[in-house]
């Protein structure tokens, strides 16, 4: 199947999900006004209460879907407690949705370091200065922390904080949805099979 076919209504014929996701993300990159890689990330807390927020997808391949965050944030603690998560992309301009769910791995230190080094200097300082998800006394307290870490790392490379790294959702399921008239949408779900391949099912809309 060609990439053009993958992005057309024939997506339900696709035999595996990664090339299809790559084609849809490419389409979204061309058509979304900003952040085509923005994705809602769902976790559960220790009471089983769901939690959801946006993150940016920073990598994907046949090993899974990667994003970066503060491991001491709410989402970081929730994932570290369960090692499970789900994601939902919605590209409004394309009327498409992709859902991903599965167990979570921590990316290697080498992978996290490599990505951290590509971030703008201000973002690397921010990773040190922000105690993400914990109460902040005032905007001034944050600016003070930024100034302190800027001074501390005035010279040389800024190392990656140990509490800042990446998670990889290793999908057990990936579902593709495309809007069709009268809410009779196309849905296809790929489920990991025991032999490492994918089972594919169409779903009622
Ligand atoms: C479009 C968008 C992208 C975001 N990307 C990230 C991200 O990649 N990593 C991150 O930690 N927070 C990101 N955020 C902020 C999160 O949505 C959230 O506010 C923050 O991570 C704290 O979430 P938590 O308290 O549930 O851990 C993003 C927010 C938006 C709106």
UniProtKB/TrEMBL annotation:
Q: Identify the residues that bind substrate.
A: 58, 115, 119, 123, 183-185
Identify the PROSITE patterns for this entry: PYRIDOX_OXIDASE (PS01064)
Q: Residues in domain Pyridoxine 5'-phosphate oxidase dimerisation C-terminal?
A: 164-205
Q: Which cofactor does it need?
A: FMN
Q: Which Gene3D superfamilies does the record match to this protein? A: Electron Transport, Fmn-binding Protein, Chain A (2.30.110.10)
Q: Which reactions are catalysed by this chain?
A: pyridoxine 5'-phosphate + O2 = pyridoxal 5'-phosphate + H2O2; pyridoxamine 5'-phosphate + O2 + H2O = pyridoxal 5'-phosphate + H2O2 + NH4(+)
Tell me which residues make up the Pyridoxamine 5'-phosphate oxidase N-terminal domain. Answer: 26-150
Q: Which UniProt keywords apply?
A: Flavoprotein, FMN, Oxidoreductase, Pyridoxine biosynthesis
Q: State the free-text cofactor note.
A: Binds 1 FMN per subunit.
Its Enzyme Commission number?
1.4.3.5
Give me the residues that bind FMN, please.
Answer: 53-58, 68-69, 75, 97, 132-133, 177, 187
What family is this protein classified in? Answer: Belongs to the pyridoxamine 5'-phosphate oxidase family.
On subunit structure and binding partners, the annotation says: Homodimer.
Q: Which HAMAP family match?
A: PdxH
- The protein here is known as Pyridoxine/pyridoxamine 5'-phosphate oxidase
Name of the coding gene: pdxH
